[in-house]
Amino acid sequence: MNLRVPDVVANAAAACGAGGWLRDLPGLIAELEAEWSVSVGRPFPHSSEAFVAEASLADGTPAVLKLLIPQDGAAGRHEITMLRLAGGRGCAGLLRDDAARGALLLERLGPSPLRAGPPTRRTAGDTGDGGGHGVAAGGGFRPAYWSGPSAPARRFRHR
C-alpha cells in the first residue's frame, strides 16, 4: 500500500516516540479493511493527532477511518466512550472501534464547512446584495444571522 501520511501526523507520531506505529500503519489499515469489510481511500490532509482517511463500507456507505497516534494516557478510550454514549447525537456516529489499536470507524458527515468558504453575514430583511450590516438606518439594531453553505445553522449530517 502506497500511503501518504500528512506531515503534521508524521511529525506528531515522531515527537511522541510512535515511529513504529507510523511504520506499521499500512499493515494496520490492511488488517482493519479485512476485519471490518471496509475500503480505505485517501487521507484527509488536515488531521493532526491521528491518521484520518476516507473509507467506504462493503455496501458503499461512506465512512471515515481514524487511527489515533498511540500516546500515554487514555485519550483514545475516552474518545470511543464519548462517541458510544453520544450515539451519533451532535457528532459523527461510531460504527466500529478497537480501543487497543486506537481505531475508530465513523460515519462520514457532509462536506467540510472549510471547503465551502466562510459564511456571509446578513441582517433580517437583507436582500443578500451586500448592503446589510446588522444596523438599520438611523442606528437601530436589526438582528444579524449567518447564511451560506458553511453557516452553522446549515450543518447537515450525511446519511
3D architecture notes:
- This protein is an alpha+beta fold.
- The protein folds into two domains: 7-107, Phosphorylase Kinase, domain 1, CATH 3.30.200.20; 115-154, no CATH class.
- Helices cover 27% and strands 25% of the residues.
- The chain is built from four helices and seven strands.
- It has helices at residues 7-15, 19-36, 75-86, 113-116, and strands at 38-43, 50-57, 62-68, 94-98, 103-107, 120-123, 144-147.
- The protein has a five-stranded antiparallel β-sheet, with helices on both faces. A two-stranded antiparallel sheet has the order 6-7.
- A hairpin with a 4-residue loop joins β2 (50-57) and β3 (62-68).
- The longest helix has 18 residues, at 19-36.
- The radius of gyration is 20 Å and the shape is globular.
- Mean pLDDT is 77; it is low at 122-159.
* CATH-defined fold name of the largest domain: Phosphorylase Kinase, domain 1
Order of adjacent strands in the largest pleated sheet? 1-2-3-5-4
Can you identify the CATH class of the largest domain? Answer: Alpha Beta
CATH architecture of the largest domain: 2-Layer Sandwich
Total domains? 2
| Rg on CA atoms, Å | 20 Å
Topology pattern, helix = H, strand = E = HHEEEHEEHEE
Q: On the 0-100 scale, what is the average pLDDT?
A: 77
Largest sheet: 5 strands, antiparallel
Q: What general outline do the C-alpha atoms trace?
A: globular
Q: What is the number of strand segments?
A: 7
Termini separation comes to 29 Å
User: How many helices in DSSP terms?
Assistant: 4
